[in-house]
Design a protein that fits this description.
Layout: H1 15-24, E1 38-42, H2 54-72, E2 76-80, E3 82-83, H3 87-101, H4 105-108, H5 110-124, H6 127-135, E4 145-146, H7 150-165, E5 169-179, E6 184-186, E7 191-207, E8 213-218, E9 229-232, E10 246-248, E11 255-260, E12 272-275, H8 281-289, H9 316-329, E13 333-346, E14 354-363, H10 366-377, E15 382-384, H11 388-397, E16 402-403, E17 405-406, E18 416-419, E19 425-427, E20 443-445, E21 449-450, H12 452-456, H13 459-462, H14 471-476, E22 479-485, H15 489-504, E23 509-515, E24 518-519, H16 536-543, H17 545-553, E25 562-563, H18 566-589, H19 592-596, H20 606-627, H21 631-656, H22 660-674, H23 679-689, H24 711-733, E26 742-747, H25 751-759, H26 761-768, E27 770-775, E28 784-788, E29 793-797, H27 804-829, H28 832-837, H29 840-868
The chain binds one RNA strand through strand 8, strand 12, strand 13, helix 11 and strand 25.
Length: about 850
RNA sequence: GGGAGCAUAGCUCAGUUGGUUAGAGCACUUGCCUUACAAGCAAGGGGUCACAGGUUCGAGUCCUGUUGUUCCCACCA
């Protein structure tokens, strides 16, 4: 038995110690060799509140596979990890904590609150990074960053001030999206629209001085308290004469005028719109156009305020119910319709977002977006797959100003001070003590913090030390690759691009590899509410990290969603075990000394030359796929080669004749090819063959060597394998038990093939369980079963058990198929246009096919004749 | 309303710039505990590549349309 390796690969006994081994040997750090080209990936920072989910697992595995590949290719490869302070999510956790303790945020105070927040971060913030390590991520932990660490905070201030000085940041009173649960503004991209069932209430407004009513359809009757006008389309024949007239707001009794505005859609509802500028962004715009007042009727928690009279204090929903009741009682409602309409929800807490008028800080986007757009259009950043650039273009072309202030405490506090005496706004990195204009000391710092994405937008360069001009920044920026899901293009990718262009004049990365979502086996999004999430850590526990990684990568094309199947992980686990057992076989077969021997290409036989030739083709293909960022195809190529060719054939050959040095060489190459995908098992096996001083992780990725290509050897072994398969096939067909050895007579019409079969007679007999093999021109075929392929005709002696007629039938059927194929091929070759237009190798291929088929057909004919005699 | 993806074996998916007879895993059938591996080996069944046109010597692959499906963006008073 093998003395090094146990029978089955056990990831649990391996992974932790291997990871430690890499860390101790500083394998994760980039090479200090300045002459080496760099390859840099910056990790999308997971939230400190987060737990590893399948999306992370996919994202991280892709990055790790790429960085390992590039590191082995000889780049000075750097992958920088870090975490995100996740303002809303973290603050929500703390608020929850406070709630259980019965303390309010205000009572606690900002300072104490932040102290708690940092304590929370220090306690739980590294959970996610610990989980990442279980996946085997090879990032440089010595460079780990946090979006609120000193350097990143400095970067945020620098960015804010630079944009402010350029006039790209302004403070304004606008309608923004307000989350009444998180109690903060959120940006447009943080609102998710969902189709919900609601109602259309048709409400009658009485015209002043007339006995006529105007009907308005609304979904939000509780905002009537904020009505300041009605609006109709000036082209609407039904209503245009009403423009300028006044109506009385039901229940409230306020007189408001009717205005004409092209925004109003004549098709929707009654074609009359009630205008509530404080609670609807479109109404706000119309209000501006017509100089209408703004009446806010709700507070920050989504409850009605004192302007709503007796409904004051009720939340939106209760106020709506109560007020509708009142309207009904007083006869103002003429109709109620069921209506499905889309409602904006907070992306964090799913509360219905309330459009709210408030003073916030904004980034002026137009100019920034133009540059960011041009950068991608000019090809300075490539999206993979390319179709995602369209999504990016569309977003950039229709962008609105970005609301960056948040009414939260956990985050980067906006570096702005207000003079209470002269209203001067002072933007500064340092604490401001005195107004620069009136020298008053009566200053107040801005309470709000910045949108989390404001700091993560700087991530690719802030982690490298920007705004300082550090060695790392000079050496590793711009970065090479960003890997992320398509769901985050607007949130993050776009923001990094314009931030980087504005601050560094360079794109933050050269390529963006976009992946899809990991769904459950039924294709549903994994979500907490559905409870269908699968914990990657549990999968690792059960199958190992390599198996999880491989199953996420194998056979997935870039950008496509994938379904998670434990069967697929199982298959990957089996593959890891397959490699493991191949290693055991080699250990068992070879002494340590033998594994060190080198081979001389000139002395090798065709079997060795064949596997070397195939290996080199695979190396070439895998390298190409990796460079094209198609990891799924690369993994598939390795899988197929290892299992189908190396294990099923080459190892079997090596049981029959000694093939020591090539066996070891090919296997080591396989380990290297596979290492970026399955780092743990490959490193572990590597150690069993090689000194621990040379981790596979920092070894050289195999390079394609055309000297190893051999068309002849590939052809010879193809002939050998095809005959083995034919015999095996015939045995099954004739129900010959596996244990029974058979006598086989082979007839070929080609002396080359005779030669190959004679040369590998031993292999042929062992692999097809043949007792006696005759390679002859003619023999007695009575009692034989026959099979034919393009290289040979075989007869299997079965001592009278064979029904000659059914043998003939079988051969005839085969003949029919071959004739059809020949006809097709000849048709092509007789077509002048095919000959003149098709590329040479295709024509050659067709000719070869015809030759093979003709050979096969003549053998079949002969065979049938022989049976007849 | 605008845009994108997907549709290939029973299931989940691959299929490079069009090029012989369309692949894998799982599942299924049959036979093997053959000393690396039963987490395995061998053999096998199973496909009008959604539908209809078109381009081409040649289409799963390119173009147009249709259907089904998933998603994104915008708007929804």
């Amino acid at each position: 038995m093998c003395k090094h390796l146990e029978k089955n690969y056990d990831p649990k006994k391996t992974e932790e110690s291997i990871y430690k081994f890499w860390e101790e040997n500083e394998c994760f750090k980039p090479s200090r060799d300045e002459s080496k080209e760099t390859y840099t990936i910056v990790m999308p920072p997971p939230n400190i509140t987060g737990n590893l989910h399948m999306g992370h697992a996919l994202d991280q595995t892709m990055q790790d596979t790429m960085i390992r590949f590039k590191r082995m290719q000889g780049y000075s490869a750097l992958w920088i990890p870090g975490t995100d302070h996740a303002a809303i999510a973290t603050e929500a956790k703390l608020m929850e904590q406070l709630r259980t303790e019965g303390i309010s945020k205000e009572k606690l105070g900002r300072k104490a609150f932040l102290k708690r927040a940092w304590e929370w971060k220090n306690k739980y913030g590294s959970n996610i990074t610990k989980q990442l390590k279980k996946l085997g991520v090879s990032c440089d932990w010595s460079r780990e960053r946090f979006t609120m660490d000193e350097g990143c905070s400095e970067a945020v201030k620098e960015f804010f001030i630079k944009l402010y000085d350029k006039g790209l940041i302004y403070r304004g009173k606008k309608i923004i999206n307000w989350c009444p649960k998180c109690l903060t503004s959120i940006s447009d991209s943080e609102v998710n629209f969902e189709e919900l069932n609601g109602h259309f209430w048709y409400i009658r407004y009485k015209l002043v001085g007339e006995d006529r009513y105007v009907e308005v359809a609304t979904t939000r009757p509780e905002t009537i308290f904020g009505d300041v006008a009605l609006a109709v389309n000036p082209n609407d024949d039904r209503y245009k004469d009403l423009i300028g007239k006044k109506v009385i707001v039901p229940v409230i009794g306020r007189e408001v005028s009717i205005v004409g505005d092209n925004y109003v859609d004549m098709e929707i509802g009654t074609g009359v719109l009630k205008i509530t500028p404080a609670h609807d962004p479109n109404d706000f715009e119309i209000g501006l156009r017509h100089n209408l007042p703004v009446i806010e009727v709700m507070n920050e928690k989504g409850c009605m305020n004192e302007l709503s009279g007796r409904y004051c204090g009720l939340n939106r929903d209760d106020a709506r119910k109560e007020f509708v009741k009142k309207l009904k009682e007083e006869g103002y409602i003429s109709k109620i319709e069921e209506l499905s309409h889309s409602v904006g929800l907070c992306y964090r807490c799913s509360a219905v977002v309330e459009p709210r008028l408030s003073t916030q800080w904004f980034v002026k986007m137009k100019e920034l977006a133009e540059k960011a757009l041009k950068c991608v259009k000019d090809g300075n950043i490539e999206f993979v797959p390319n179709r995602f650039s369209k999504i990016y273009y569309h977003w950039m072309e229709n962008i609105k100003d970005w609301c960056i202030s948040r009414q939260l405490w956990w985050g980067h506090r906006i570096p702005v001070w207000y003079c209470k005496d002269c209203n001067e706004i002072i933007v500064s990195k340092e604490e401001v003590k005195e107004c620069r204009k009136c020298f008053s000391k009566n200053l107040k710092r801005e309470e709000d913090t910045l949108d989390t994405w404001f700091s993560s937008g700087l991530w690719p360069f802030s982690v490298l030390g920007w705004p300082e001009n550090t060695d790392d920044l000079r050496r590793f920026f711009p970065t090479n690759l960003l890997v992320t899901g398509y769901d985050i293009i607007f949130f993050w990718v776009a923001k990094m691009i314009f931030s980087s262009l504005e601050m560094t004049n360079k794109p933050p990365f050269k390529q963006v590899l976009i992946h899809g979502l990991v769904r459950d086996s039924q294709g549903r999004k994994m979500s907490k509410s559905l409870g269908n999430g699968i914990d990657p850590l549990e999968v690792i526990e059960q199958y190992g990290a390599d198996a999880l990684r491989f199953s996420l990568i194998l056979g997935n094309s870039p950008g496509n969603d994938l379904r998670f199947y434990s069967e697929k992980v199982e298959a990957s686990r089996n593959f890891a075990n397959k490699i493991w057992n191949a290693a055991r076989f080699i250990h068992m077969k070879l002494s340590e000394k033998e594994t060190r021997k080198k081979f001389n290409l000139g002395e090798l036989d065709s079997i060795d030359k064949w596997i070397l030739s195939r290996l080199n083709k695979v190396i070439e293909q895998v390298t190409l796929e990796m460079e094209a960022l198609d990891l799924g195809l690369a993994a598939q190529k390795i899988y197929d080669f290892v299992w189908d060719e190396f294990c099923d054939w080459y190892i079997e050959f090596s049981k029959i004749s000694n093939r020591n040095s090539v066996l070891v060489y090919v296997f080591n190459s396989i380990l290297k090819l596979l290492h970026p995908f399955m780092p743990f098992v490959t490193e572990k096996i590597w150690h069993s063959f090689n000194s621990q001083d040379y981790p596979i992780m920092v070894s050289d990725f195999p390079k394609h060597n055309s000297n190893y290509l051999s068309q002849n050897a590939e052809k010879e072994i193809e002939v050998l394998m095809s005959v083995v398969k034919m015999v095996r096939n015939l045995r099954r067909e004739m129900n010959v038990p596996q244990s029974r050895k058979v006598e086989i007579n082979i007839e070929t019409t080609n002396s080359n093939i005779d030669e190959i079969l004679s040369k590998y007679k031993n292999e042929l007999c062992r692999l097809a369980n043949i007792k006696e093999l005759n390679i002859l021109d003619k023999f007695n075929i009575s009692g034989c079963a026959a099979s034919v392929n393009e290289y040979a005709k075989i007869y299997m002696s079965l001592e009278g058990l064979v029904d000659i007629e059914s043998e003939i039938e079988k051969l005839k059927k085969e003949l029919e198929v071959s004739k059809n194929q020949l006809e097709q091929a000849n048709k092509r070759l007789n077509n002048k246009e095919f000959l003149s237009k098709a590329p040479k190798h295709v024509v050659e291929g067709a000719k070869e096919l015809v030759k093979n088929l003709e050979g096969k057909i003549s053998k079949l004919n002969k065979s049938i004749m022989e049976f007849r005699i």
